Amino acid sequence: MFKKILIANRGEIALRIIRTCKEMGIKTVAIYSTADKDSLHVRFADEAVCVGPPASSASYLNIPAILSVAEITNADAIHPGYGFLSENSKFSKICEENNIKFIGPSADMIDRMGDKSNAKDTMKASGVPTIPGSDGLIHNIVDGKKIAGEIGYPIILKATAGGGGKGMRIVWEEEKFETQWDAAKQESGAAFGNDALYLEKYIEDPRHIEIQIVGDQFGNACHLSERDCSIQRRHQKLLEETPSPFMTDELRERMGQAAILATKSINYEGVGTVEFLVDKHRNFYFMEMNTRIQVEHPITEEVINFDLIKEQIKVAAGIKISGNNYYPQMHAIECRINAEDYNNNFRPSPGKITSLHTPGGHGVRVDTHIYAGYTISPYYDSMIAKLITVARTREEAISKMKRALNELFVEGIKTTIPFHIKLMDDKRFVEGNYTTKFMEDF
Fold it and tell me: What is the tens place of the pLDDT at every residue in 217-239?
């Protein structure tokens, strides 16, 4: 087992990893930017080293600085969390070359699944259902229009290096293709330094359902059932729940087996998520694979009583998994609490938290790095907390979430708490009748 793990991340996920490491008797090293010097992950780690100024490119994405910290602190492993360098194959490879264990998949696995065009080709070859689309990248507008005409509109253009909804454009008719092509290339080039695009048939009003998987170094893989992530705004998830109210036992089994097939096809090592779009007829199509821990992992932990961070660390240390699949015994919901003004088109709201009260009680979990007096920086993602409730039924989990949301006070900044309170009373949500289009009519 590792003696010391450097956590190449910040905020609540860094704190989450520190907690599991402490329980496992593993020392921790936090890195931080000057903007995060007062963050809780800095306070609770065994050691903390500043890696640069506020800009991510000069701190949390600064590979030479991070590796220098690992070297001077004698860390034998690096946990990347999510975001930042978590799906960076170059970082994984450099860690390996420096005899530091990257807690996640190898560079080759990340390349095969992190590049969306490559991932789709890999899944197709493995027999996992995929959305009809281009065979790899599209090299010019003429080819793109031809493929779109063969598939039939609407289609969606996607950045091969994409994430977070960037570099994605829906094209409803041929006349709009060129405009949307230019917009998608410009956005993906600016966001990822890579403007390569591919296209797929656009599945109207789908559910976004992901399967949690684990694979070890011995070729074993298992799934831990699904999470429904369909409530999104601009492709950013706002709420997740498990089990999905749309799921059937038969569909869960089929999607779970497809996810295991995807995992085994690349001999995947670590914790990951296979994401699918599911249409109204319960046909499902591979969308992408996230080769890291997910923001929404706590709801899976709650319904199967399982520490996914611990499992990540054990797998990275060469410990074999049981190979058993896991199924939800409870119902859990996660609300992402963001520092955003819901009544002002979700405008970011950085600033100092003057007062804070977090809810408690049976079946309530709060994953957060904030405290009264803490300043929310404008430099990073706006998520400040994850509020999770778990109960025996979906109805009880919703009731518990209503109560918890009304106990959660964050003063000094605007948050999305009012949005989530309203969401809990929405008839479509209460009935479990929602798709990825939910927010368009909310």
Answer: 999 999 999 999 999 998 899 99
pLDDT at residue 164, rounded to an integer? 67
* Distance, CA of 362 to CA of 238 (rounded, Å): 23
> Could you tell me if 198 and 116 are in contact, meaning their C-beta atoms sit under 8 angstroms apart?
yes
Question: Which CATH number fits the domain 207-441, given the four candidates 3.40.50.300, 3.40.50.970, 3.60.10.10, 3.30.470.20?
Answer: 3.30.470.20
Q: Measured in Å, how far apart are the chain's first and last C-alpha atoms?
A: 48
Q: 0.85 exceeded by the pTM?
A: yes
For the annotated catalytic residues, the residue numbers are 292
Describe the crossing of helices 107-114 and 89-97 by its angle, rounded to 10 degrees: 170
CATH classification code of 132-201: 3.30.1490.20
Query: Hey, what are 28's tokens?
Result: 């921790």
- pLDDT score recorded for residue 113: 87
- Summarize pLDDT for 252-272 with one digit per residue, the tens: 999 999 999 999 999 999 999
Query: How many Cβ atoms sit within 10 Å of the Cβ of residue 415?
Result: 24
How far apart CA 293 and CA 198 sit, in angstroms, is 26
Strand order in the sheet with 47-52: 47-52, 27-33, 4-7, 77-79, 101-102
